[in-house]
């Protein structure tokens, strides 16, 4: 079977795809995805990251954000645990 030569257009297409994949991975790291929260890469990015993280958490469960903003209440936690045992 003869060896096929790769044209300049094919090389350009591959290079363009590589750049697109790199951009997608960087974007996903910054904003997160359905399965992964956004990453905080540097403390200077905290305000932007906080907004992205808040959006991610709300996308998982709209009541979940209260777990981050409400102080821990041991009595409430125990009551919730006992209540879940009754349902089983």
Q: What do these coordinates show?
A:
There is one protein chain. With 88 residues, the protein is an all-alpha fold. It has helices spanning 8-31, 46-60, 65-69, 74-87. It has one domain. It contains 4 helices and no strands. The model has no long low-confidence stretch (mean pLDDT 76).
Cα end-to-end separation: 67 Å
Structural class: mainly alpha
The main sheet comes to: none
Which bin fits the share of residues in helices? 55-70%
Question: Which consecutive residue ranges, at least 5 long each, have pLDDT under 50?
Answer: none
Overall mean pLDDT stands at: 76
Defining key terms:
88 residues, 66% helix, single chain, elongated, mainly alpha
Topology, please?
Blueprint: H1 8-31, H2 46-60, H3 65-69, H4 74-87
Write a short abstract of this structure:
With 88 residues, the chain is mostly helical. It is built from four helices and no strands. The chain starts with 7 loop residues before the first helix and ends with a helix.
């Amino acid at each position: 079977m003869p060896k096929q030569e790769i044209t300049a257009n094919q090389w350009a297409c591959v290079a363009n795809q590589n750049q697109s994949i790199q951009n997608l991975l960087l974007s996903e790291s910054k904003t997160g995805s359905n399965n992964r929260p956004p990453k905080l890469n540097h403390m200077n990015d905290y305000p932007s990251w906080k907004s992205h993280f808040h959006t991610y958490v709300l996308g998982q469960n709209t009541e979940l954000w209260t777990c981050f903003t409400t102080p821990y209440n041991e009595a409430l936690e125990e009551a919730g645990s006992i209540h879940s045992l009754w349902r089983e």
